[in-house]
Amino acid sequence: MGKGESxxxxxxxxxxxxxxxxxxxxxxxxxxxxxxxxxxxEGYVDAAEKFQHESGTSPEVDLGSITDRMAVRKAVxxxxxxxxxxxxxxxxxxxxxxxxxxxxxLQQQRLIELIRSGKLEEALEFAQEELAxxxxxxxxxxxxxxxxxxxxxxxxTSNCPVGxxxxxxxxxxxxxxxNAAILTSQSHEKDPKLPSLLKMLIWSxxxxxxxxxxxxxxxxxxxxxxxxxx
Length: 230
Known about the structure:
This protein is mainly alpha-helical. It is built from 12 helices and 4 strands. The strands form 2 sheets. A two-stranded parallel sheet has the order 1-2. A two-stranded antiparallel sheet has the order 3-4.
């Protein structure tokens, strides 16, 4: 940006900006609901119980259901996919019955765990009997299956082109997908509202940057205002 563009911007001082922010009234009740929404969605049941006691904010779901949901999520994160499937069916069998993509990804994760533990013959048999028929019905499933089975072709899976399937991030991806499905079945948002609001803040600041120089929040964690560039 040239000097002409920068100098043409309106400059808002820290004092004026803070005064305008102070004029915006936000109810404490709304802030408490935002915090509770985050704790419930992300599964922090102990924190949610403590926050409910301290703030008087009621959660949107039974906190006991959070414990069950987190048990399912933890099972996938630990590689115990069969246990996770059993637990989610105990919660609500319709979750997997009505979501073939999710069920495929859980079965795919089971295959990955078999390969991880060196049970290669069992893995190949499982792929042929459980996953191949689903791949024939859905092209995207077939591509994912082929990529997963490719792990069997490498002795050193840590350096193979599809080695990322064995990373913890793959377990986390599957666990998050299952967690979102459980939340949806409970008529709850699958994503917390707080991160969306932070994304909106960043977008709004980027839009405002084109016209105004103002005290910006660059460090989202600290939420500190920085003096405008003059």
